[in-house]
């Protein structure tokens, strides 16, 4: 039976993300009671694993690095059908950039043991670097395909996938064990079911600290991150707005006039 | 593990890209930018290029500012082969020890850059919208975040690596009389890579390409629903304008990711921009460069989008877009490209 690891991230609910601002003086994030949810693309990653489990049978381990609160989203993944949930949580992991995050996740996967496939969402909604998946693969020394849109052949050890490419797509042949980062149109993630929630109640999630991973404090979190945040500044656009006045009708007419005068339409 | 690249005055590098026998615009733009950085640092500017039939591109890169162009040339490398590219690049970088490596945020760059950075044990910054040398000549890699701009630095490791989208930096003028060196790298295809790109397929599924569009209509979450989005789409057709969007529109599945404008999407430089139902978040707005005329429609008079445009219409999209559509249809006016 196949062993699949799905990496998930708890992110501030993207629907409320515009409420996060940075304090220009202290350079710290100001978050006002924003719920943590599963990063949307990680739901596609989990769904890919669930579909493989349904057709061929598989054991799915969900792995997340985050604060203790992120345990809730790991639980949610169990309710969606994953078998085992692991949270990498330790103060020492805090402040990690993509590189240190990927390193820590890779160490977590090594500790899980044998695996055939790792799925990650192609990007997180709050960081959007797209680096974590391919860097996890690099630390694990396994091949990777990013931005996967379709699993064309997903049986045996030699897979064929369709992945993003400018003005079209690329077909990539890859040998397992391998890591895939998935795009939104790979599948349609299912919603939580009541029976899933009931079944997941009995499942426990495991929490691993830095000691469990046996890594040096210098290689994780803030200390293990090659990048740091420097100055914060504002952007000036140099434009000043003129609001169109009058009824909606008059505004529409004026807008057509502005577009005509500027040569945008003729 | 690997040896860390020491702190020294290494070159500024660009990992360039050739597709369908032509050098990518972003590679030239980065070469132009890298030339400026190299001049400031008083170090050489070098380009690495993979593919087949690269001679013409190498000459163009020299004309754009490269002192040296390293070519990994072979028929097997014509498309994109991640493992072979990465092996060759990492070996070269370990030997030559560049200070800075710039790459395009193309599909190749987005996959390869993190692999290279992890193998070189260094930092990488995504979707930079500006690169300037700061204190101690450390590269300030600027990205929009949380309503402002932050600089990401990689102060203690080398090379400092960034990805940048096409259109962020201008295309440099070519000086055909510049001289530079072309160096061919040894390409060893003997290994059996565990991952192989077997085919790159071109699809004709794009409406008006945003890259070339002089007039762009962009919509955001405030278009409300699929119906509202489709009304905006019709507006763009009637105007003969390109149609772009913000991230929530992609998340809702109303439009393709390829049409998302902004830091992690497309950089565009239209003459005319009309944004409807979007809040003016910097991650979107930095994607629009140098427009002559910018107009926003938003039902919230306090929306930050109005601080970034020339004309503002405070109206609800669900009523105003159909009205505007009607007026335009009546007038028969549309955009004709110059
Ligand atoms: C690292 C990172 C990278 C990102 N990259 C990008 C990127 O490349 N491109 C991108 O677009 N986003 C990007 N984002 C997301 C970005 O931060 C914003 O969340 C997004 O641009 C907001 O889209 P919006 O303006 O459509 O939605 P919202 O911010 O929700 O704004 C909707 C606007 O519509 C108005 N509105 C609501 N109803 C109506 C109505 N009926 N009529 C008129 N107006 C109405 C509201 O007043 C509001 O101003 C990125 C985010 C991160 C963290």
Automatic annotation (TrEMBL), chain A:
<feature type="domain" description="Electron transfer flavoprotein alpha/beta-subunit N-terminal">
    <location>
        <begin position="26"/>
        <end position="217"/>
    </location>
</feature>
<dbReference type="InterPro" id="IPR012255">
    <property type="entry name" value="ETF_b"/>
</dbReference>
<keyword id="KW-0249">Electron transport</keyword>
<protein>
    <submittedName>
        <fullName>Electron transfer flavoprotein beta subunit</fullName>
    </submittedName>
</protein>
<dbReference type="InterPro" id="IPR014729">
    <property type="entry name" value="Rossmann-like_a/b/a_fold"/>
</dbReference>
<keyword id="KW-0813">Transport</keyword>
<dbReference type="GO" id="GO:0009055">
    <property type="term" value="F:electron transfer activity"/>
</dbReference>
<dbReference type="InterPro" id="IPR033948">
    <property type="entry name" value="ETF_beta_N"/>
</dbReference>
<dbReference type="InterPro" id="IPR014730">
    <property type="entry name" value="ETF_a/b_N"/>
</dbReference>
<dbReference type="Pfam" id="PF01012">
    <property type="entry name" value="ETF"/>
</dbReference>
TrEMBL record, chain B:
<dbReference type="InterPro" id="IPR014731">
    <property type="entry name" value="ETF_asu_C"/>
</dbReference>
<comment type="similarity">
    <text>Belongs to the ETF alpha-subunit/FixB family.</text>
</comment>
<feature type="binding site">
    <location>
        <position position="298"/>
    </location>
    <ligand>
        <name>FAD</name>
    </ligand>
</feature>
<keyword id="KW-0285">Flavoprotein</keyword>
<feature type="binding site">
    <location>
        <begin position="277"/>
        <end position="284"/>
    </location>
    <ligand>
        <name>FAD</name>
    </ligand>
</feature>
<keyword id="KW-0274">FAD</keyword>
<keyword id="KW-0249">Electron transport</keyword>
<dbReference type="InterPro" id="IPR014730">
    <property type="entry name" value="ETF_a/b_N"/>
</dbReference>
<feature type="domain" description="Electron transfer flavoprotein alpha/beta-subunit N-terminal">
    <location>
        <begin position="12"/>
        <end position="204"/>
    </location>
</feature>
<dbReference type="InterPro" id="IPR029035">
    <property type="entry name" value="DHS-like_NAD/FAD-binding_dom"/>
</dbReference>
<dbReference type="GO" id="GO:0009055">
    <property type="term" value="F:electron transfer activity"/>
</dbReference>
<dbReference type="InterPro" id="IPR014729">
    <property type="entry name" value="Rossmann-like_a/b/a_fold"/>
</dbReference>
<dbReference type="GO" id="GO:0033539">
    <property type="term" value="P:fatty acid beta-oxidation using acyl-CoA dehydrogenase"/>
</dbReference>
<dbReference type="Pfam" id="PF01012">
    <property type="entry name" value="ETF"/>
</dbReference>
<dbReference type="InterPro" id="IPR001308">
    <property type="entry name" value="ETF_a/FixB"/>
</dbReference>
<dbReference type="Pfam" id="PF00766">
    <property type="entry name" value="ETF_alpha"/>
</dbReference>
<protein>
    <submittedName>
        <fullName>Electron transfer flavoprotein alpha subunit apoprotein</fullName>
    </submittedName>
</protein>
<keyword id="KW-0813">Transport</keyword>
<dbReference type="GO" id="GO:0050660">
    <property type="term" value="F:flavin adenine dinucleotide binding"/>
</dbReference>
<dbReference type="InterPro" id="IPR033947">
    <property type="entry name" value="ETF_alpha_N"/>
</dbReference>
<feature type="binding site">
    <location>
        <begin position="246"/>
        <end position="247"/>
    </location>
    <ligand>
        <name>FAD</name>
    </ligand>
</feature>
